[in-house]
């Protein structure tokens, strides 16, 4: 009889776990070696409007319905403060619903051994007040401005020559406009020439790199501060990060990425050492920090 009474409350709670609000946001999550990609269809028209990495952004008090996938091996997505673990398995899509009551940055970690850098395959969920989330959406769906500084212009040239075989900046294409053109939408089809977007392989979309707080699988900060894996911080999230860009972190990564993070680029796992000169690194970083 006691178990029968408890069962009523238990079944009721289980049914509520499956409830999702009508205004839930759909995000596709893709695990890769060794970082996480997030894709948004902001107007539910079947077209991907935003592709970002390392940091999932969502509004406080609203359900986010994740469709979790993998491009290579089995990963596992876990934000301890928001929900349980869910595996990312090649060829499958696993659902998970997140909801956060308070703005802040919630830390996560891949929890399925997935290769050399499994231990540093981190992710963040940035939860914003609803009005700040709208600011973020507007910024992320607006093409970045062309660089005006001469050093940054030179860095854009370096990016086109050295980086666009793997990375995307939406619509960055020689000759589209002088010197380059932009399209609003990212290319979700890796390795295929779609519209005005150059081909890209399995590497993060960098269109609005400086709208994120971290990079390299959330291992390094993009703005001055600690790069340690800190605990969840509630109430400190901003739609547009502030502070001075962490140029030394960017330079360190470009100078020798395998020194920062164990990888195997010969097997298409992680970023290779491009053999950039210090002048090219300075130019490239000057360009990257304009991508807001």
Spans where pLDDT lies below 50 across 5 or more residues: 191-200
> Whole-number radius of gyration?
20 Å
Fold-level CATH name of the largest domain: Cytochrome Bc1 Complex, Chain D, domain 2
What fraction of residues sit in β-strands? 15-25%
Q: Report the helical percentage.
A: 10-25%
Level-2 CATH architecture of the largest domain: Orthogonal Bundle
The DSSP helix count reads: 6
The secondary-structure element order is HEEEEEEEEEEHHEEEEEHHH
Mean pLDDT comes to 86
Domains, number: 2
Strand order of the largest sheet: 3-2-1-5-8
Query: How far is the first residue's CA from the last residue's CA?
Result: 61 Å
CATH top level assignment of the largest domain:
Mainly Alpha
Helix and strand composition category = alpha+beta
How many β strands by DSSP? 15
The dominant shape is globular
Please describe the biggest sheet, giving its number of strands, its sense, and whether it closes into a barrel.
Answer: 5 strands, mixed
Protein described:
The protein has 292 residues and is α+β, with helices and mostly antiparallel strands. It folds into 2 domains: 23-129, Immunoglobulin-like (Sandwich); 150-288, Cytochrome Bc1 Complex, Chain D, domain 2 (Orthogonal Bundle). 22% of the residues lie in helices and 22% in strands. It contains 6 helices and 15 strands. The strands form 5 sheets. Strands 3-2-1-5-8 form a 5-stranded mixed beta sheet, with no helix packed on it. Strands 4-10-9-15 form a 4-stranded mixed beta sheet. The longest helix is centred in the first third of the chain and has 16 residues, at 2-17. It is globular and about 75 Å long. Mean pLDDT is 86; it is low at 191-200.
């Amino acid at each position: 009889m006691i178990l029968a009474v408890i069962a009523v409350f238990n079944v009721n709670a289980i049914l509520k776990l499956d409830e999702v609000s009508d205004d839930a946001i759909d995000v596709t999550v893709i695990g890769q070696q060794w970082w996480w990609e997030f894709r948004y269809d902001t107007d539910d028209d079947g077209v991907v409007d935003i592709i970002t990495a390392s940091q999932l952004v969502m509004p406080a008090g609203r359900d986010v319905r994740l469709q979790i996938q993998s491009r290579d091996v089995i990963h596992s997505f876990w934000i301890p403060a928001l929900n349980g673990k869910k595996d990312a398995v090649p060829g499958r899509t696993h659902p998970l619903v997140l909801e956060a009551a308070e703005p802040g940055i919630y830390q996560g970690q891949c929890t399925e051994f997935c290769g050399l850098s499994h231990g540093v395959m981190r992710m963040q969920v940035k939860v914003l007040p609803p009005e700040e989330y709208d600011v973020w959406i507007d910024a992320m769906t607006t093409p970045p401005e062309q660089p005006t500084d001469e050093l940054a212009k030179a860095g854009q040239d370096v990016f086109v020559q050295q980086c666009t075989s793997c990375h995307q900046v939406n619509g960055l294409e020689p000759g589209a406009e002088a010197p380059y053109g932009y399209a609003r939408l990212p290319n979700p089809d890796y390795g295929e020439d779609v519209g005005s977007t150059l081909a890209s392989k399995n590497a993060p979309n960098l269109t609005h790199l400086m709208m994120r707080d971290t990079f390299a699988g959330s291992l390094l900060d993009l703005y001055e501060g600690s790069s340690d894996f800190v605990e969840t911080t509630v109430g400190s999230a901003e739609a547009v990060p502030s502070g001075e860009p962490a140029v030394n972190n960017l330079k360190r990564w470009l100078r020798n990425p395998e020194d920062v993070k164990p990888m195997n680029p010969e097997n298409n796992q992680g970023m290779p050492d491009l053999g950039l000169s210090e002048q090219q690194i300075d130019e490239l970083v000057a360009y990257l920090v304009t991508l807001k």
